[in-house]
TrEMBL record:
It comes from Halomonas cupida. GO terms for molecular function: glycosyltransferase activity. This is Glycosyl transferase. Its main location: membrane. The keyword Cell membrane applies.
Length: 234
C-alpha cells in the first residue's frame, strides 16, 4: 500500500466496501485511479474476504482496512479513518463518472448530503425502467440506496452517529437520519451498477422481494429478521 502523505489533505474520501470480489475488484479500482490523481483518497474496506480481494486491492488504494463483514460496519470503519471533509460511499460493483469529485464538492458546498442517479448495466431492457423508478422514488421520498453512491460531509456523518450497524436497510435508515439535517441533493449524473444480480435472480422476482422487504421494514419488522429472509430467498 502506498504510504499516506500526511502533509496534504485529500479533497474527498471514497470509501469502497467489498467481500469476495477478486474476479472484478482490480478493474473496479483501476477505474478509480484517475480520481486519486484529482485529489481523492481511496479507502477500501474488506469484510474478511476468503479470496484474493485484499491482496489485489492493496496496491490500488490509499488505505486498505480489513474488518468483519457487514455493509454498515465496513462503511463506518472506512469513514472513521477518512482524512477528507467530504465522504462518498461506494459498493464494489458500482462505477463512478469521471468528474465525480467535482460534482460532489459542488453539491456539498450547499447541502449536507446527496446521491447520484443510478444506471443498471445488463441485458434486460427492464433494467433501464427499474433504474428510472429507483431514481424517481428517491427524488420523491428523499431516501437513497447504497447503489446510488451516497455522499455527505464528514461532520454530518458524525452528527447523525454514522450508519446504523444493522444487517439490512442501513441505507434507508441512514437517509432518515440525514434528512434531519437537510433534504438530499439528487444529482442527475449517473453511477453505473452491475445488473447481474437482477438478471440472475429474475428481474421481477427481485423487484417483488425488495418491495416486500421494504414494506415490512416500514411496518417495523426488525432488520435481523428481514436479513434472514433475504438470505433464505437468495
Amino acid at each position: 500500500m502506498p504510504p499516506v502523505d500526511l502533509r496534504s489533505t485529500p479533497r474527498l474520501s471514497i470509501i469502497l466496501i467489498m467481500l469476495n470480489e477478486a474476479a472484478s475488484i482490480r478493474a473496479r479500482l483501476e477505474a478509480l485511479q484517475p480520481l486519486r490523481d484529482q485529489g481523492a483518497e481511496l479507502i477500501v474496506v474488506d469484510g474478511g474476504s476468503e479470496d484474493d480481494s485484499a491482496h489485489l486491492a492493496e496496491p490500488l488504494a490509499d488505505q486498505l482496512l480489513v474488518t468483519s463483514a457487514g455493509r454498515a460496519h465496513q462503511l463506518n470503519q472506512g469513514a472513521a479513518q477518512a482524512r477528507a471533509g467530504l465522504l462518498m460511499f461506494l459498493h464494489a460493483d458500482t462505477t463512478l463518472p469521471g468528474n465525480a469529485p467535482q460534482l460532489v464538492e459542488q453539491a456539498l458546498s450547499r447541502h449536507h448530503w446527496g446521491r447520484f442517479d443510478v444506471h443498471i448495466e445488463g441485458h434486460s431492457p427492464w433494467l433501464a425502467v427499474i433504474a428510472r423508478m429507483i431514481n424517481l422514488r428517491s427524488r420523491l421520498s428523499g431516501i437513497a440506496t447504497g447503489d446510488q453512491a451516497m455522499f455527505m460531509r464528514h461532520d454530518g456523518w458524525k452528527q447523525v452517529g454514522g450508519f446504523p450497524e444493522q444487517p439490512l436497510m442501513e441505507d434507508i435508515e441512514m437517509s432518515r437520519r440525514l434528512k434531519r439535517l437537510s433534504a438530499p441533493i439528487c444529482l442527475k449524473a449517473r453511477v453505473t451498477t452491475d445488473g447481474r444480480r437482477w438478471e440472475h435472480e429474475g428481474v421481477f422476482a427481485t423487484i417483488w422481494l425488495m418491495w416486500r422487504l421494504r414494506w415490512r421494514y416500514w411496518r417495523g419488522i426488525s432488520p435481523a429478521q428481514l436479513a434472514r429472509e433475504y438470505r433464505n430467498v437468495r
